[in-house]
Amino acid sequence: MENRAAFLKLFVIMMLVSCSTPVIGQTYPITGINILLPAAPEPNISNWGQGRSQFAITATAASVGGRIDPAARESKMLVIIKNNGIKVCGTYTVNSAPPANFSTVNKVWNGNTAVSFLGKGCRLPPGDYELNVQFFGYKNGKIVALSEEVSKAFSIRGNDKPTDQQQGVINAGIVRDAKQTNLNRPGDQQPGVINPRVEPETKEANRMRPADQQGDGAKPTNTNKPADQLAGAFSPAVEPETKPANPKKPGLLSRLGKIAVSSTGFGGTININLSSPGACDCGNWSPITINRTMKFDCGGKNVIPWKCGQLFNFLSTYNCTSKDKSCQAVTGWEIKKDGVSIVGGQGDQNITGEFIAQANGNYTLTLTAACNGKKCEPCVYTIAVEDCKTCDCGTWGPLLVNRDVKYDCGYKNRIPWKCNQPFNFASVYRCGASSQNCEAITSWEIARDGTTIKTGEGANNVADTFTPTANGTYTLTLNADCNGIKCPPCVYTIAIEDCTTCDCGTWSPLAVNNAVKFENGVKNTIPWKCSQLFSFTSAYHCGLNNQSCQAVTSWEIDKDGVAIKTGNSKIDVADAFTPTANGTYTITLNADCNGIKCPPAVYNVVIEDCTTCDCGNWVSPLVNIRANGSVVAGLKCGESVALSKGSYSFAIPNYRCGLNDASCVVSYSWSVQGGPVVVNGTRQTFNYNFGQPGTYTIDITPICGGKKCRQCKLQVIVQDNLPPVNEEKPEKKKPVTVEQHYYYVISPEYAGEVVSVKDTLFLQIENNYSSGSNQLSYTIRNLSNDKTSRLTKLAITNNQGLIRIALPLQNSVVLKGETGQLIMGDYKKYYYISFKRN
Fold first, then answer.
1. Strand partners for 353
2. Confidence (pTM)
3. CA 769, CA 640: separation in Å to the nearest integer?
4. Can you tell me whether residue 47 is helix, strand or coil?
5. Going by DSSP bridges, is the β-strand pair 679-681/640-644 parallel, antiparallel, or unpaired?
6. Residues 746-770: pLDDT tens digits?
7. Are the beta carbons of 793 and 777 closer than 8 angstroms?
8. Is the distance from CB of 752 to CB of 679 less than 8 angstroms?
9. Helix, strand or coil for residue 260?
10. Are 74 and 138 in contact (CB under 8 A)?
């Protein structure tokens, strides 16, 4: 019998290995799956992602051209737990499995990440289980397996229950603690268990007595031997009125079968495991009955031909091997197609199920069974379906152009067409099978010289139009998809040759100060004097000089590679600047004709007679910060201070340039960053309102005769928890009322503040803010989306007194409810004001 049992065990293992071996020639993009479980798996799966020993999964993706296989990169990972072939844990299915997120060829999912693939947490009762991992993905619109299914067996241990609750175990021993005396059920109430009663510890603790006979004044009996003599013995306690159980009574051992004895030591528990001759073992499957008419034996030629769309109903029975009817099988069934499970179920010894095949191919029906927890050999049937109508690729109908001319797919000649003439087209694609469930998904693309200009998509019918506006080769590509299968495209070529081109032309001479002209392409180095105004104009004419072909122009003025001024216009260019330092100023004129960038014109303006000023040093090292008329901080360059919210005054110390003469004038520029907008100014003393907590950076730059010297950086940390500072707003911040309008004075006094306006921004510029030129320029920037308007020029009629401006905002880049910033000035000075449209 032992040899026979060993042979059957080896046979089952060989069958399981052969069933799990992949089909020869089958390759998957994901291999090398390895499952690592905690050393002692807990019943609560959620705890597998914690502690020293955690749940982990590793896998390897194939690489294509040095990159991860696209199928692996888009794959999904299904993780489930089964018991006796039945799914008991795992939220997801093949269709809903979460993405595997393959970011590297060798991928590791560990801890809580690995546990998350099971979905909701599960709590498993004690028993034997297997954890299964498999990857899936889409191919031709259908979900397919991308790896083998890999399993790992594990067990959940019990909570160390007393052995008298285990079937087939005889438990004899002493319980020292009265709290542990929960063995009060008579042995005849427990199937297959002879359960002796035990007593709590007394003065004669080495003797055994029935627990239910103890009470006050009860005398211990010595009917039983001391517990230290129980090793290897069977000595249950009995009631006093009955005779002691005789272990050698004929027929008892013959009913118990083989006995295996183990001991935990002195005063411990003796476990005697019994195996009955009538054990529950694997048996066999009855023939499968299909639709109550056909029968197929398990193990025969199990290829069953079947029709598409016909109901497949089956019934079978598994009979375990035992001498009585108490041993019944637990069964399960699963139907797969191309390695993907499509339906399944479970039952007792009788199993039944049904499905309907909707596509051609081989379906695998697997019947599984377990007898008393022991997995038995499965029975596998193959169902072949061949008569389903396939949705294969078909053909494109002719291309109908402007409802007049037809071109068959495959037309190799170019279709000649006229410029600016609409090209209206239509066509139809029919998939291979003419059924309602087999409709094409179509798309089309129109490209010019390889650049896509229009796309579209639809069902069987395609229809669209486009108008060519330039010479070149246009390609019309029609694509179709039948049931997820990409079909060969149909391509047409359309040639346009009669469009009038808007080619590049020439720049007119550069006119300087309305007097001297310099030709483009000649010696474009222009000598000039320091601090002398340089005003210039020019024009660009494209090759075809008409209304449909006009140049878009722009210009840039650089000094030593740094842009100092830019502008843009149409056809004409006009601007001015005043050089204040020695060096080479470069004027670059750019033009664009119908999207074609044309060669620029470049002029170099050389300045050599400016007085050179060198940088020096600060007379005082401190920048004083005042509030309420008192100095609250004095900072050296590079230092920081913590302040409360409020308005402060900053006094920049004097700076001494290196060349100490009257022509070497020092000036200052500063900026504050960290607030809602960056604020700039040039005054030596300025105010700033810190309205929000945060870190602000203040940059102060001394300028010697136009030469920027080393910056002085300060940092102000504004905190909410500091005492507030009472703001003292300068009188100039109040708007000037003229004719029922509020005119805001543009000056650095508004640093850090935002004024509220409606549809018009009224501004007042005092004469000391103008440098004496006859025009100012301004731009408006939207602080909500960072859009900026074009540079706009504003003529000044009275530049020696007050200048009042009413600037309409209805068509500006700043809409109602948004915040903007006006930047205004001439070539020397710029001033800012921030506003919000209400």
1. 314
2. 0.28
3. 32
4. helix
5. unpaired
6. 554 444 466 778 888 777 665 444 4
7. yes
8. yes
9. strand
10. yes
